[in-house]
Design goal:
- The protein is an alpha/beta fold and 466 residues long.
- The chain has 3 domains: 8-69, no CATH class; 72-361 and 420-450, Aldolase class I (TIM Barrel), CATH 3.20.20.70; 365-413, no CATH class.
- The protein contains 19 helices and 11 strands.
- It has helices at residues 8-14, 31-48, 52-69, 77-84, 102-115, 127-132, 137-151, 168-173, 175-191, 212-233, 256-272, 308-322, 342-345, 355-363, 369-382, 393-400, 409-413, 417-437, 444-450, and strands spanning 19-22, 25-28, 71-73, 93-97, 122-126, 155-165, 196-200, 241-245, 282-285, 327-329, 350-353.
- It has an 8-stranded parallel barrel with strand order 4-5-6-7-8-9-10-11, surrounded by 5 helices.
- The two termini are 29 Å apart.
């Protein structure tokens, strides 16, 4: 069982003969002891210590220890530029949202990566997920980095802010306040090592306008404004990969005309800034999916007819006319397994996967039924205001159970080791399956060719200086 340190003095004693702090760096003196037990103590302290200084110190130690071992957070931009030039083809990059058990789930991802020499894989978390899973960006970075250390992974970490979204209703009542919240989150995420940011201003597309350009105007103008901010904040020597979005997931299907309207307006607005800067590297579109899938009255998921033709056409135009890596598919993890090998064939650049892994955790026979029942009782009591009149209890729980992860984070992280191992095996099997279908196995060399480490300085916390 991991030790949660409640003071920096306790934490510093635990480092003896394993880690040594030198200026703003960490020297790893004993990697075996770090992997076998200290990293467990560090990540549990980083997440659960009641002492804020201890949490901050543990997160810094994890991130700098990872860097010392050759685990570096970075941008996928150079690879996406190569995809835009059509130098690299034939695979779709999986972007995995981890909503629960982040330390254990990330280990399962890394084991699958290492087993099959997998190339690019993105770890991401959305603005909404940050709130309801109670995982701020720095905690998420620390958990993923700690998982990499634990299993012996070495190489790049692609950490991504997913759906850094402007809420349409809040924007309508106070646009400056809502945009500032997104800007603050972007700043926080970059400080935490998120060097891939997906801007989602597609919520502001107004289909009541007479022309496509007018419909997309607020979307592309604000996307440009946020892109300029990101370029101002990105570390020296690194270009953050930025994603844009032309159609809100769950809405009407996107078109090539919308892509052109967005990109032309977006690039014009970037030029108005007076600086010659790179724009987005990919474009998210709507092709018929819904986040989490559509639950039927019995709680099962309705089949989705995904518009692969639209996905292929938009990806082709995005590459040919604008040099983008291609289109991005959201809300895909609940699609039938036979659908996934079609994404590389249509030139899809990236695919976002979340709810399917959440379902594996909740539906696993290895998750103690008492804890599952406790979470469901919380949902039925505390979140009943989110239940629609037309929802059956099964539909309501399915749509809402993602919000049970935050309040029960400590109970989930402290599950018996045998339960965690068994759930991780189930997840690893699905990760390996998807990596094979998306053609990212046996292509780690592609990442090595285009992605080089950039050491971003990270100031040592004052509590660790003495």
């Amino acid at each position: 069982m991991a030790t949660i340190h409640e003071s920096t003095d306790q934490l510093k004693k635990a480092l003896a003969e394993i880690l040594k702090i030198s200026d703003n760096d960490v020297n790893v003196l004993d990697s075996e002891k770090l992997e076998n037990f200290l990293i467990d103590d560090l990540i549990f302290t980083a997440v659960f210590s009641s002492h804020e200084e201890a949490r901050k110190a543990a997160r810094w130690l994890i991130r700098r220890s990872g860097e010392a071992l050759g685990i570096f957070s970075t941008s996928i931009q150079p690879l996406y530029e190569a995809m835009g030039r059509k130098e690299v083809t034939g695979f779709t990059v999986p972007a995995i949202n981890i909503r629960a058990l982040t330390y254990d789930v990330a280990q399962a991802v890394f084991r699958a990566i290492m087993k099959d020499d997998v190339g690019p894989v993105i770890f991401e978390i959305a603005r909404s997920e940050i709130d309801y899973t109670l995982q701020r960006p720095e905690e998420y970075t620390s958990a993923v980095t700690a998982a990499a250390i634990k299993v012996g992974y070495r190489g790049p970490l692609f950490l991504q802010g997913d759906h850094f979204q402007v809420n349409a209703k809040k924007f309508a009542s106070d646009p400056n306040k809502e945009v500032q919240k997104v800007k603050d989150l972007i700043w926080e995420a970059i400080e935490a090592g998120f060097y891939n940011i997906d801007i989602d201003t597609s919520t502001l597309v107004d289909l009541s306008k007479p022309t496509t350009v007018e419909q997309q105007k607020t979307n592309y103008s604000l996307a440009a404004e946020l892109s300029i901010m990101i370029r101002d904040l990105e570390p020296v020597g690194m270009t953050i990969s930025i994603g844009g979005e032309i159609g809100e997931v769950g809405g009407k299907n996107s078109t090539v005309e919308e892509l052109r309207a967005f990109m032309v307006g977006y690039l014009e607005d970037l030029k108005k800034s007076g600086a010659d800067m790179k724009g987005i590297s990919k474009i998210s579109v709507q092709t018929g999916t819904t986040h989490g899938g559509v639950p039927l009255p019995d709680g099962s998921i309705a089949k989705v007819k995904l518009d692969f033709d639209t996905l292929e056409k938009i990806s082709a135009v995005a590459k040919a006319e604008f040099g983008l890596s291609g289109a991005v598919q959201h809300g895909a993890s609940t699609l039938p397994n036979e659908a996934f090998d079609r994404f590389p064939k249509t030139g899809t650049a990236e695919i976002h996967l979340a709810t399917g892994f959440q379902n594996i955790i909740y539906d696993s026979t290895h998750l103690p039924s008492a804890l599952r029942d406790q979470i469901y009782q919380y949902i039925k009591k505390d979140l009943v205001g989110e239940k629609k009149d037309t929802d059956t209890e099964e539909q309501f729980i399915y749509k809402t159970r993602k919000k049970g992860f935050g309040p029960f984070k400590k109970e989930l992280w402290h599950l018996p080791q045998e339960a965690l191992r068994a759930i991780s095996v189930e997840l690893e099997k699905q990760f390996s399956f998807l990596f094979g279908k998306l053609n990212v196995i046996h292509n780690a060399s592609v990442v090595a060719k285009y992605i080089k480490p950039v050491d971003v300085p990270l100031k040592v916390p004052d509590a660790l200086r003495s």
